[in-house]
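Checked the freezer inventory, then went back to the computational side. Two predictions to log before the end of the day. The first one is the construct we discussed on Monday; recording sequence and tokens without edits.
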Amino acid sequence: MIGETLEQVALALNDYLQARFSQVGELAILSNITKSDGTPAIENMDTVALTLIHIQEERVLQRANKFDTGTAPVYVNLYVLFSAHYTETGSYRQALDHITGVIGFFQSNPTLTKQNIPTLPSRVEKLVPEFVNQEMQNAHFVWSMLGAKHAPSVMYKIRMIVVDDELGFSPSLFTGLSSNP
């Protein structure tokens, strides 16, 4: 569900950037920045990449719902890096404008729901993006961790992602699977 949710956010951001800058094509994509061998993963370099950096459990909501129902879905926060990549013939200024567009998208959509992103997965009621202020040292750590060169970027914490067992598996179904014959 995380991949599907971020893909829908990327598509909505893409539509917003196309309208804002009167451009066509993929202006926002869900993508890692580098491949496992360290080479760039983004083929269309004049675009904004959404890259999942970290997943964090929202423990306050988790505990509150567990007491109410006995079992509860897992609420997670997603830390997503939005980075603008450009070719040598592309424009650094355009990359900066696209990052400004990302900030504008979230400023004009402080809560993402099915009203502004109708294609959100059915189990996701709302997403709340929150700007993450990064210290220079933390930003350096993120880019080093990714194995990439720095690009204009901004990070958002996207709150309220619900991860629930969509198939309704019960632990009792798996009790015999781990026993040795």
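The second is the one RB wanted added to the comparison set:
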Amino acid sequence: MKNSKFVFDKLSKIIEQGLITSKDLRSEMLSILKSKRDEIIFRMKLTSKEELEILSKRVENLEKKVSQLQQTNKKKTKRARKS
């Protein structure tokens, strides 16, 4: 209910200001939605796209190192002979 009231309030303000054309209405709605999206992201404290890419590259590098270490450990271990 709160979200719908917010949308209706914004729409009524747009109509009152005389933004009647569809392009103006569309651009105004997009700007409202983008600002709400940014507000939600800020509240959730999400990382930016650049930070996410950097972190994913770090994880990939660490996974490669772990797999290389596992392969070298398998090569070094030998079975003992039964006597």
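For RB: The chain has two domains: 1-44, 47-75. The CA atoms of residues 4 and 10 lie 10 Å apart. Let me know if you want it refolded.
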